[in-house]
Amino acid sequence: MRSVLCFGDSNTYGQMPGRGPLERFARDARWSGVLQRELGPKWQVIEEGLSGRTTVHDDPIEGAHKNGRSYLKPCLQSHATLDLVIIMLGTNDLKARFGQPASEVAMGMGCLVYDIRELAPGPGGTVPEIMIVAPPPMLEDIKEWRSIFAGAYEKSHQLALEFEIMADSLGVHFFNAGSVCRCDPADGFHIGAEAHESLGVALAQEVDAIGWVDQER
């Protein structure tokens, strides 16, 4: 059985758009659950989503535990061995409190790739396949979150390009979630049930395309 770690924020956790932080879609409706269904029983899909998670930043309001980099290494070790790590982060880095341009959010994503390579939690101590996923860009109307994400709308539309550049430079896989789904108008930055379905199906196709036949254990 192969294993894939899905490391992300509230859109991996499955938070329902426009609802409270503990209201989430059922496991089989979240994109990671759809990915499991599509990949089948030869794969174990491990979901690691946390609302508010950033790439590399301690959050001065929500807490230091929102720093994805701090949690990534113990997470990788606890779930090793891993054949693939999918990372979909970046939205929370766009909060006004961090003041980050899209290019520096991509640098944060690059740090996570370096950490995965350094730890090498793949079979036999190898580096697993890594896929960077750019989250779908925000909508202009993000309701009561407008001040928290001041300036984020424009930056969110730049993330895919910056992430793709970073992925190319590091030699890892890339997928633009915005090519198959969009954020829900209920709050403008979370994805709805149909988007989870579309994303999970698309990512399963991307995983299949990696070429695992040449990498059989």
Automatic annotation (TrEMBL):
<dbReference type="GO" id="GO:0016788">
    <property type="term" value="F:hydrolase activity, acting on ester bonds"/>
</dbReference>
<dbReference type="Pfam" id="PF13472">
    <property type="entry name" value="Lipase_GDSL_2"/>
</dbReference>
<dbReference type="InterPro" id="IPR036514">
    <property type="entry name" value="SGNH_hydro_sf"/>
</dbReference>
<feature type="domain" description="SGNH hydrolase-type esterase">
    <location>
        <begin position="6"/>
        <end position="196"/>
    </location>
</feature>
<protein>
    <submittedName>
        <fullName>Lysophospholipase L1-like esterase</fullName>
    </submittedName>
</protein>
<dbReference type="InterPro" id="IPR013830">
    <property type="entry name" value="SGNH_hydro"/>
</dbReference>
